[in-house]
Amino acid sequence: MLENNYSSLVSPIDYRYGRPEVKNIFSESSRLLKMVLVEYAAARAQSDFNIVPRDVSEKIAEVYREGKITPVEVKNEERRINHDVMAMVKVLSMKVGKEGAFVHYGLTSNDVNDTATALQVKEFLALFLEKLVEIQETLQSLVTKYKNSVMLGRTHGQHASPITFGLKMAVFLSEFQRHTIRMLQAIDRILVGKLMGPVGTGAFVGRQALKVQKRAMEIIGLKAENNPTQLVGRDRYIEFLSILNNIVVTVERLATEIRNLQRPEIGEIHEFFNKESQVGSSSMPSKQNPVDSETVCSLSRMVRTLIVPQYEGSIYWHERDLTNSALERFTIPYASILTDFVVHKLNSILSSLYVNEKRMRQNLRRDKLAMSESVVKLLTVRGIPRQDAHEIVRKAAIRSVESGEGFARNILASVTTIAITEKDIKKALNPSKFLGVSGRICSETVRETAKAILLAREKVVELRWLPL
User: Is 281 annotated as catalytic?
Assistant: First the structure.
């Protein structure tokens, strides 16, 4: 029987997907405390400019530190007055006491809402950057370990020239490195708050409004919106979700690669399967399905849908209407939670990935045609014009497929103008001798990634700082 606290849950975010520590960031109680923190920063900055008494921020800080305000209290007040932010303000003012007369001084609801969202994203990024570091470190290990492990390349789903498994992983590692740099470069544009009132003029606070706003944002580790309406610019939210979208594209592409290479007819890698207890199919007990990789693909697709309502909600009337409000209760929390989850899950898959090097070599040996590019090179350097060499090899490959005769024999039979021996062909058909600079690419990618990892770790320390 389900416990009572599960019986009314609707969203799979609540009961199936997402790391608890990330979901907590976007919980009702966590958001409420961040709203209180915004009120604290506003009051503290205003007191620095002698606009309100210092006691106001000190009392708010006490409420924040001791958790004296709860979602239940605010919800009860919201039912009475039908306004969520004003309900928080009223309850907070009561908790603060006589200094509550200056709570929310010069602010509008979205000063608190948007700045609280920035604080949530700030806390999220501290955790998420760690996940980006972890998956890059896992990929670095795979690249280093398998940089000389030869396997078939594949283009258009067909066998192509050989690569190494390390090089395949280096491509994805490089993408995650760029995603990390993109996020680091965008952080100052994304983590932005405002305290400029209902139309962005700061009229209530007066001539010192910009200084107060800047000081308040400094207190909580954010940048100040330079041209607000009633809202922080939604292009910032779109940029944030765009980077997350870009990340989950890489995530899904890598998970798809795992699924494809796990197919029995290929069998070169396999995600972990617990042979002691795991069930692959309710009907076919023999199956070992790549369920984790498939989950990653499915949720990545879900993340990418969330930017569409964010685009739509960023088009509002005049200085603001309410058409963005409800949808943004989904877009940023869900995109953040699910992106973090798929990166976390993919890292788990990669960390326990079974790499079948023997099968990779077997697949290479079965298809000599995959070395056709190498044979073209051999003929060209021996004196046959490249385009002629290409045509000779193309026809020899077709004859090999149709007749079942060996590729090398058909090549030798096709070349009459230059001296080519069976030994020459055999050497050209050796995959390990046709890998170019794969090893160097792997090593350089690992080195470049180390720089991004260092920058990300430094930023995590900065993001974790809070004034209270």
Answer: yes
Mean pLDDT of the region 246-275: 95
Q: So where are the chain's domains?
A: 19-102, 109-273+285-362+440-463, 368-433
CATH of domain 109-273+285-362+440-463: 1.20.200.10
Nearest of 200, 219, 223, 234 to residue 108 by alpha carbon: 200
CATH 1.10.275.10 is held by the domain 19-102? yes
The single residue of 11, 281, 298, 352 carrying the catalytic annotation is: 281
What Rg, from alpha-carbon coordinates, does the chain have?
Answer: 30
Give 450-460 pLDDT, tens digit per residue: 999 999 999 99
> The pTM is what?
0.94
Would you call 314 a catalytic residue per the annotation?
no
Q: Which of 7, 8, 156, 277 is catalytic?
A: 156
CA dist 421 → 84, 344, 389, 432, 433 (Å): 83, 53, 16, 20, 17
Q: Do domains 19-102 and 109-273+285-362+440-463 have the same CATH topology?
A: no
pLDDT digits (tens, 9 = 90+) for 186-235: 999 999 999 999 999 999 999 999 999 999 999 999 999 999 999 999 99
